[in-house]
Fold this sequence. Notes:
Blueprint: E1 2-5, E2 8-11, E3 14-15, E4 31-34, E5 40-46, E6 50-57, E7 67-73, E8 77-82, E9 93-100, H1 114-119, E10 139-140, H2 146-152, E11 170-177, E12 185-189, H3 197-204, E13 214-225, E14 231-238, H4 246-259, E15 267-270, H5 276-281, H6 283-289, E16 293-294, E17 305-309, E18 311-320, E19 330-334, E20 346-349, H7 358-366, E21 370-373, H8 380-383, E22 389-395, E23 398-403, H9 406-416, E24 434-435, H10 444-447, H11 449-457, E25 471-473, H12 475-484, H13 487-496, H14 498-502, H15 504-519, H16 525-535, E26 544-550, E27 567-569, H17 577-585, H18 590-598, E28 608-614, E29 621-626, E30 637-644, E31 659-664, E32 671-675, H19 689-709, E33 720-726, E34 732-739
Parallel strand pairs: 3-9, 14-15, 15-16, 18-19, 19-20, 20-21
Antiparallel strand pairs: 1-2, 4-5, 5-8, 6-7, 6-9, 10-12, 11-12, 11-13, 13-14, 17-21, 18-22, 22-23, 24-25, 25-28, 26-27, 26-28, 29-30, 29-33, 30-31, 31-32, 33-34
Helix pairs in contact: 15-17
Amino acid sequence: MTISLRPVILILIAFLTSTAWAQNGLFNAGSVTHGDDNRLRFEVPSSSEYYYVLHRRPALDDVSNEMPVAMQFGEDGVITLTEPLGIAPSQGYYRIQQFPRDFPGDIDDDGIDDVEELSDTTGRLSPFNETESVPFRDGVSRVLSRQMFRDLSYHGLEPSSRDPHLENLEYVKFYLVNANTGNPTVYFQNTVTHRSHPSFGNVVGIRRGGNGEMRGEIVYHPFLSGPGGKPGLYHIQFQPNDDYPFDEVKIAFEMMARNLPFIENNLVYYLFPRAETVYNREKALYDAAGIPVLREDDVYADISFLPLNPAEGYGLLRLMELDERPNSRDVVLFQGLPNEMPRVGGVITTVAQTPLSHVNLRAIQDNVPNAFIKDAANDETISALIGKYVYYKVDEVGYEIREATLAEVDSHYIDRRPTETQTPIRNLAVTEYRDLDSIDFADSSAFGVKAANMATLHTFGFDEGVVPDGYGLPFYFYDEFMKHNDFYTQVEVMLAESGFRADTETREQTLEAFRDTLKDGTMPNWMTTALTELQGQFPDDTPIRTRSSTNNEDLPGFSGAGLYDSFTHNPDEGHLAKSIKQVYASLWNFRAFEEREFFRIDHAATAMGVLLHPNFKDEIANGVAVTDDPLYQTQGNYYLNTQIGENLVTNPEDQSSPEEVLLSASNSSDYTVVSFSNQVANNEQILTTTRLRELRPMLNTIHSRFRSLYGLSIQAQFAMEMEFKITADGQISIKQARPWVY
């Protein structure tokens, strides 16, 4: 019979391979569908006594170029045979062949019957690949699963000396022989054992320079979607100097598709620059065959999965609105991007996150999994688990989510939480505010790390105005304010109430009321006088930025990003005490309290200092830079997020996507724009080459000087995170510098 589907003509015929057992008659497919992943699916009435082979040929009468593309054991009922590649826009012809399992065929004519090869679970045998069997430590004939691919792949900083372009990519090398014959063969190397093709070739006896020899790699991109639409794209590439014609690329591409059955049409051909000329000349052939291509510029495009923070977590999976409040044992699924979040068990967002947002920095410091997963709320594997306890894992190349037991959840949180109360250091011996030039790096115990690090930046020799002038208000002021109003007694009573500890909503409401009480508190006369004097240090028409600087944030191993609040005190708001009390009150934010509670930090010993400096307005851009590449994990690069105007990278507006740049730490002209800001027209670059040349030496200095101040060796893992802005007059100004939390 003949079935018409889109532009592809399908012919399904019963092929009887042996008259000894065959019965005459047509073999009919139940239905043919075109799946969401762009592949043809053939529903086949079947029996467990048989296995079935799907063949494809380019033309109805072109029997010589017919090839088997899928094979499957039958079941009593219906099975589905799937074309491994997407439908090409040209015509194709298919037939389905039925074999008895007791009298199997040998499709690849290698002397091993199909049943034995199809039953193999080690990758040693393939029904579509006439290879000599080799031990897994050397390689396989067929890669059966994503896990097998990972087991065969090398992913690190020491690829073969000939392959610097493969550094830190996950890849498996392949060796294709006899590509110019009607019977090509492909080996997939165990690339952990054999980093180079010659090493593998020597083991299996492949003679270099033989006829029809093609060598290359299959590289995995976890962040991209392929033609099939699912996250996780694989590309096939040859050697950088190869420029094979279409016919040979097509053979290799189809061999890969048949022998990588777990890849659901997410395979593409990667073009090195040398191959561009041949491709452009033969582009029509690629289009007709439906072979998609990938270029270097495409690698960072159309990302459908981003592992913002690789980790493992447990909790109750909840689909939440942005204004809902999760608790510490929730794995939250947001269809937007919340600007703040208390401690949770894991994070999934269906919109791309800003890697340096407070949400992700919180995930990093809390060591909980966080990922952008495109359309996660409509993914059955995720949506079916909403309202259930789950195990959720994110790593550099994918994610795992499954149902978990309450016992697993309880055990996870017991293991992660400290057993003893922790008391943060607070030096109350400093009793006066100081200008930043009078505060040292070691004074963080009295002023907080944020203020002390800003003061330290003044000593690095940057141009005037790069680091704003300002003042630090010590912890002593906060402590005296609390004692003057007897607020420590209120804290004691609040913490002792059983309902406060037991109920999230009660806790949130009680903390909100306590913050209001703090804002209404009075200051002793000496403090009011001191703040009057401090306010007088700024010109009358200058807005003053008052920024939280506690004794439990901005520390190596604990950033505290987004826990506390900063405020701008405008000239028409009266006495500075108003904004100082607002900053003090933020010490009792719900999200901050939850974080301290989880780590058993003594709430009463936590103290708030304040960093004060002139407020900037109408800035051209703002950004965050890390003196490492924590996202793409390239070597020797700094990672920068920048957004236009006052749209913060750390607290981005909904659907705001920043400019991403990888900036070489050593080469004055080397950088890569990974993605452009979606707030700027025509892909205009926010950080121009000139700006990047200004930033590089600043970042180099910040990295090296703070490494020394923190007493870390050159071998120790270390980076600094720097917030900066480009002011209205075009100057780079540093807002903050703190250790990056790995």
